[in-house]
C-alpha cells in the first residue's frame, strides 16, 4: 500500500482518502493532489456542526448557549443569525445579531437553516 501524503496545512501523518480527495482528521483540511496547491489555499471550506458547507450569506442557528465575552448576557440556543460572512481565523463567522450587535462565532456552534 503506498504511503499517503502528510497534510499540507498541519503536517499531520494521519490523512486518509475519501474518493478522490485526501482528508486530514486533525484540522479537517481537504485537498486533491491533481490540483494546484495555490488554488486550494484560496478556497476555504467552512462546515457547520452537522458537516454542511457554509457560504457567505447563509442563515444559521446557534446550537448551544454561548457566553458573550465582555458582557453579562448569553447568546441563547436557537438564536437565528442571518447573512453570515466567512472570515479566516479561529472564529470564522462574522455576523450581526439582533440585540447583541456585531459578533464573531465559531462554525462548530451553529447549524445551517
TrEMBL record:
Species classification: Bacteria, Bacillati, Bacillota, Bacilli, Bacillales
Protein name: Zinc ribbon domain-containing protein YjdM
Domain of life, source organism: Bacteria
Chain ranges passing through the membrane: none
Chain ranges of the Protein YjdM C-terminal domain: 46-112
InterPro entries (alphabetical): YjdM, YjdM_C, YjdM_N
Pfam family, one: YjdM
Domain called Protein YjdM N-terminal: residue spans: 4-32
Protein family membership: Belongs to the YjdM family.
Amino acid at each position: 500500500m503506498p504511503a499517503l501524503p502528510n497534510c499540507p496545512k498541519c503536517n499531520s501523518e494521519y490523512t486518509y482518502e475519501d474518493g478522490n480527495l485526501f482528508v486530514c482528521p486533525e484540522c479537517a483540511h481537504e485537498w486533491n493532489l491533481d490540483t494546484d496547491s495555490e488554488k486550494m489555499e484560496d478556497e476555504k471550506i467552512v462546515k457547520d456542526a452537522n458537516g454542511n458547507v457554509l457560504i457567505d450569506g447563509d442563515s444559521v442557528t446557534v446550537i448551544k448557549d454561548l457566553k458573550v465575552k465582555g458582557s453579562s448576557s448569553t447568546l441563547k440556543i436557537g438564536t437565528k443569525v442571518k447573512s453570515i460572512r466567512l472570515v479566516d481565523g479561529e472564529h470564522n463567522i462574522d455576523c450581526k445579531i439582533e440585540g447583541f450587535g456585531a459578533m464573531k462565532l465559531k462554525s462548530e456552534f451553529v447549524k445551517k437553516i
